[in-house]
Design brief:
This protein is an alpha/beta fold and about 350 residues long. About 40% of the residues lie in helices and about 15% in strands.
Length: about 350
């Protein structure tokens, strides 16, 4: 029996991408033990995992901060008798751990395709060659370590559609008509649909009696915006804040979830719901499209400047965010309506 250490500290979306793979890995190799090392705020994601998949929280902003923190993590992990290290992050922090373990343990590290990323987002002479999906890059790491995960095993990690409906109806009432989720936020401006335009989208769907609209978001600023929408559109439902596990259960019962290129997009895919994703500065070509979702569920304006960023951090050199502002609310509304009925 081997003990495999898997490292991926951030961000929420990236951990969510890896989750079905590591669940399938643990189910495929029940005699081995898999330790997933990440930040405490993602612990909820591992609530319903196989018994041989163990989550180990590491607060890299406090007691395990910096190089010294990684040395302390290494010392802490000695008691786990790690046999193999699979680094799904590939950053300075995990490199420290990799080096410490590599003296007597095999270490396998994700390839981040940095050159291909730069070619994809450069302003002139872009090369629109699709990068390998993040989940596949993670799967390659496990393959090199001697562990193979089939597509069938991956699919078995998905809950049946509406699996949690009974418990969600106890919270939100009997489901009648469509349950539509909207996650209007993203970390970076290049991935955010204008709030004024989203206001019009909300106005349309909240005024239809056969739609129940749920808003997803967190943090003080996002919560303030959602509360303002709740005052304006009284029929909006604000999900009960009890953690990521229950949010995923609610997403599992939705007929559709409108998201940006954000963590909620990947949470929706994990929940096996119909995810409608809006893309701006970033692009599905970069390999971060939601897993197990049809290409037709992606909404974007094709411009020669796109993509200008892998993560949406870079400022818009046009200064107008045309990739988002040229996407009219009417188009978003019709896109959702058509795909819900299809």
């Amino acid at each position: 029996m081997a003990t495999v250490l898997i490292t991926r500290f951030s961000a929420l979306g990236d951990v969510t991408i890896a989750l079905p793979l590591v669940r399938a890995l643990a189910s495929t190799y029940p005699d081995d033990r898999f330790l997933f090392l990440s930040q405490p705020f993602v612990a909820d994601l591992f609530a319903e995992s196989p018994s041989n998949l163990v989550f180990i929280p590491v607060n890299i902003k406090k007691e395990y901060k910096g190089v010294k923190g990684m040395v302390d993590v290494f010392r802490m992990l000695k008691a786990e008798h790690v046999d193999i290290v699979c680094d799904l992050h590939g950053v300075h922090r995990t490199h420290v751990l990799d080096i410490l373990f590599s003296f007597n343990k095999p270490v396998y590290r994700v390839k981040k395709e940095r050159k291909a990323r730069r070619r994809l987002v450069r302003r002139w002479r872009k090369r629109h060659v699709p990068l390998k999906p993040a989940l596949e890059r993670y799967r390659e790491v496990f393959h090199k370590a001697g562990f193979d995960v089939s597509d069938a095993a991956l699919s078995q990690t998905l809950p049946p559609i509406g699996f949690h409906l009974e418990s969600m109806e106890r919270l939100y009432g009997k489901k009648e008509g469509y349950w539509l989720g909207i996650a209007p936020f993203a970390r970076h401006e290049g991935k955010r649909y204008p709030l004024a335009d989203m206001d019009r989208v909300l106005d349309h769907f909240t005024s239809r009696s056969f739609f129940t609209v749920f808003l997803f978001g967190g943090g003080q600023e996002e919560t303030a915006i959602m509360n303002a929408w709740k005052q304006k559109f009284s029929s909006i439902v604000m999900p009960v804040k009890t953690g990521l596990a229950q949010e995923i259960q609610l997403m599992n019962c939705l007929d559709g979830l409108l998201t940006m290129d954000s963590a909620n997009m990947h949470l929706g895919a994990l929940a096996n719901t119909n995810v409608f994703s809006i893309w701006g500065a970033t692009h599905p070509l970069a390999g971060f499209a939601p897993w197990n979702q049809p290409v037709t569920n992606r909404l974007q304006v094709e411009l020669p400047c796109r993509p200008c960023s892998i993560y949406g951090k870079k400022p818009c050199y046009r200064k107008d965010h045309a990739c988002m502002t040229h996407l009219s609310p009417d188009r978003v509304i019709s896109f959702i309506a058509e795909n819900l009925h299809s």
